Amino acid sequence: MNKFDYVRPTTLAATLDLLRASDEPMLLAGGQTLLPTMKQGLAAPELLIDLNAVSELVELSVTGDGIRVGAMCRHATVATSGAVRDKIPGLAELAGMIGDVQVRNRGTIGGSVANNDPAADYPAALLALDATIRTDSRDISADEFFVDLFETALEPGEMIREVVFPSCRSCGYLKFRQPASRFAIVGVFVARHRQGVRVAVTGAGSAGVFRWTEAEAALDGNFAQQALTGLALDPQQMLSDIHAGDTYRAHLVQVLTGRLVEALGARSLRVRT
């Protein structure tokens, strides 16, 4: 690991001053990705800015018809929040599937979103739920935020403050996990909004998280597993690695989406009756 300076600010204003005054700073949230990459020499910040004492970034609250989640909220906090379980239960379910107990108690939503790992869970939730990423200087829609593998719309010196999720009619997440890391080999998040259905896929796309728009159109007309019959993803647009090939991933997306739609339909029926 290379030498670096370390600071632990206690306010957002001090954090932003430090971030903009250094040539090569990096922000430390949960450290689940950054610290291992620093140990391997793949990341070498001149200044490491620890966000763990900035209380302004921790708040989770209800806002209007949705939820505001501070960038430093731990996965465990989102998973166990009564407000999240009430308004967006699928988001709480997703947070409870991330990693293991240790990871969920250290990892943060802001760190996960900013890293944009192609196998991370949260990006699928943000896309499907039509979330807004609020930085220190602007609001970015999830559709515009995720650019490519490990690449986002964040500018140098810009940091995530919170993520704002609107509530939805119903939603859920299902993933086929890699047994050691528990990352998603394929993960699918389906959300039913008043304006229509959104389906987001993580772990599978060669360019990272993406919306399956053909499935969205089919499910808008008929929210049932049968509506997906005949739909297929192009394997050439899928990832292929030691864990799963591109054809297998394309098939898994279809299978998981169908199972999730069936589960959400059954859940909705139970609520009505």
From TrEMBL:
GO terms for molecular function: FAD binding; oxidoreductase activity. PROSITE patterns: FAD_PCMH. Keywords: FAD, Flavoprotein, Oxidoreductase. Residues 1-170 form the FAD-binding PCMH-type domain. Pfam families: FAD_binding_5. This is Carbon monoxide dehydrogenase. The lineage of its organism: Bacteria, Pseudomonadati, Pseudomonadota, Alphaproteobacteria, Hyphomicrobiales.
